[in-house]
Amino acid sequence: MMTTPRKPPKSLLRCVGRAIADFDMIRAGDRILLGVSGGKDSLSLLQLLRHLRTYAPVRFELAVLTVDPQVPGFDPQHLKAYYDALGVPWYYERQPIMDQAKSHMDGDSFCAYCARMKRGIMYRLCREQGYNVLALAQHLDDLAESLMMSMFHGGQLRTMKAHYRNDA
Fold first, then answer.
1. Which residues make beta-bridge pairs with 165?
2. Nearest Cα to Cα of residue 64 among 85, 41, 39, 92
3. Strand locations in the chain, DSSP E?
4. C-beta separation of 76 from 92 below 8 A
5. pLDDT digit string, tens, across residues 35-93
6. How far is CA 21 from CA 16, 17, 90, 162, in A?
């Protein structure tokens, strides 16, 4: 059984707070949808944002979304009770991305195809549910991996931006 987490370490809170301020990631009234896979990165970011929400100078809403690509072994349903205990709304979207990749991938890597498909689902849900900020738990290894994939598979030097914002 999962219990309510303790206060995140100050070292992490300080780094996240600095990144949020440096890149103007959270503004008053934002509705943030956090992509959560159930892994340590996204669950850690959930805890950090939940904690920051209690004392941040701006008020914001927070919800989580899990995109299930319907691959063997992936079953995030056990986290529903955890999100309920935290009082965080959870959206769950299923799409057979692996099966779609087999027939729709065109010279791309599976990882790039899956990531694009998942982001599309996340962007759609943000629009449908009125969330103006999509948050993803990307760490330095993810950044380096996405840069390398872009260079070797796409021939370009690019990676994800620090944040995307839909203020429309």
1. 133
2. 92
3. 31-35, 61-68, 90-94, 133-136
4. yes
5. 998 888 899 999 999 999 988 889 999 999 999 888 888 888 889 999 999 999 999 99
6. 9, 6, 26, 12
Angle formed at CA 27 by CA 51 and CA 67, multiple of 5 degrees: 65
CA–CA distance, 131 with 31 (Å, rounded to integer): 5
State how far the alpha carbon of 102 is from the alpha carbons of 98, 118, 122, 142, in Å. Answer: 7, 16, 21, 24
Structure tokens at 47: 């805890």
Joined tokens for residue 106: 């065109």
pTM: 0.81
Q: Rounded to whole angstroms, how far apart are CA atoms 26 and 24?
A: 6
92: alpha, beta or left? (left if phi > 0; alpha if psi -120 to 50):
beta
Q: Extract the tokens encoding 93.
A: 């979207």
**Nearest alpha-carbon partner for 89 in 55, 67, 109, 65:** 65
